[in-house]
Amino acid sequence: MHGYVDCHCHISAGDFDKDVEEVIENSKKAGLLALLAVAEHSREFEKIIELSQRFPGFIFPCLGVHPVQEVSPEQQRGACLQDLDAALPIIEKYKDQLVAIGEVGLDFTPRYVRSDTDKENQRLVLIRQAQIAKELDLPLNVHSRSAGRPTIQLLKEQGVRKVLLHAFDGKPSVAMEGVKAGYFFSIPPSIIRSEQKQKLVKQLPLENICLETDSPALGPEKQVRNEPKNICVSAEYISKIKGVSLEKVMEVTTQNALQLFPKLKAAIRP
């Protein structure tokens, strides 16, 4: 299997509006075979679907409600069920085109969570989206900031089996609970400047690792727009930590992505 899969990327972000064609072209040159475009809120759902139609067999849509919602550029708050209500009809409309429900999850960063009620609202939104994923037989593309253990626990309680934990920020010991449940972890290019991500990769079996860029965030350099072409930065660093060839990292992570997101198989043939 020669090439990479970016399992979590925000290609619909405004940062890419001016040069998306070039960004996609560069990512293909860097060896990218497919890119999973995740959503944060219902207002960008149509844009993600349009991009997946504009770049068929390369951009694959994931729709979901992120645990943090923007009120204004300066103000953000935890998600609540009303946010999900706006999203459900669009998810229903495009359900056959989706490769995953995402980006969903929990975010207990203190500035977004003022009370236990805020945490509970996020949990309710995640539980409902976990149910939708099971009904549609789709994996979940999951965010868990400052909430690694509660997220893994909730997913296990809900009987969710197909999970990608993106840019996991918890301890390796907590991640191993996810490994036991059969979950996958995707690693962004920011690994080159994150000791926590480096420790995580040391512990995680390669069989549970996928690649992501989370573009335009989590790039190799802080405050510089990240692009899907940087997927190879993640792969190279993983190969260094694991002491295996880049070829091996490419092959195993791509097989992992195909196992977790079977709808990619039609587009990516060995």
From TrEMBL:
The keyword Metal-binding applies. Keywords: Hydrolase, Metal-binding. InterPro entries: Metal_Hydrolase, TatD-like. A divalent metal cation 1 binds at residues 8, 10, 103, 214. It comes from Pundamilia nyererei. One of its GO terms (molecular function) is hydrolase activity, acting on ester bonds. Belongs to the metallo-dependent hydrolases superfamily. TatD-type hydrolase family. A divalent metal cation 2 binds at residues 143, 166. This is Deoxyribonuclease TATDN3 isoform X1. Exhibits 3'-exonuclease activities and apurinic/apyrimidinic (AP) endonuclease (in vitro). Show preferential AP endonuclease activity on double-stranded DNA substrates and 3'- exonuclease activity on single-stranded DNA.
